[in-house]
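Continued from yesterday's entry.
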Amino acid sequence: MFCFVVVRATPHRQPRHAAFHRSLELAHCRTASHLQQMGVLFAEQSYLWLPIIYLKARKFALLFTLGSLSMLAAMALLRGPTAFCRHLLSSSRVLFIVVYLATMIGTLYCAMGLRKTVPTIICASAQA
């Protein structure tokens, strides 16, 4: 994963707090990179359970959902939380994101709270 930080060259010396802001941007990039790596790891782990999904459907759904949440969190850190929320809550995406978040919450609740396989499969199918 690559993270690029654009730093504008100015003819005069930058104030001391500019270096602090630049270090914060790099820290956000590193955190987002770790979250993306966790998301990919969870997704890969869930795909390993595909051959026996009928036996371990809850484990697959839980790992897949955690991977999706990690990727969303990484994207929020990369774009900035407020800009990302504005992007998600735009008029063309609001219905999709509400349904998607509801199915993720439903999948987590059915897999960890209820511990029932059939509702977990229904929520995970709606999520995908």
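--- second protein ---
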Amino acid sequence: MMANTKVAISIVTYNSKHIFKVLENLKQEFGQDPQFRFVIFDNNSNDEYKNRLKEYQDFVDITFYHENNGFGFGIIIIYCKLLKNISWYLILTLFWLGKIY
């Protein structure tokens, strides 16, 4: 994490059909702006999905978990383990993913 990161945008996934278009849009809009940090927690999606998601590791910090423990679990892990000293924390839910793709 870069010291000047101000906003963390977190997404919990499980075989989401919209995530790849969302990531393309976010990458185009924000590029490598160090003020933003994008974080994905994947709840044990299928291997094809995980392999496709790995293509975005240059832009997004991705944690692949070995089982699906739900949205809340993913958010807690992201917050507790990965997002210390961030000024703002945004959670993108399935509802919003569908709106921005």
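The first strand starts at residue 7 and ends at 13. Residues 7-19+34-100 form one domain. Will compare against the first tomorrow.
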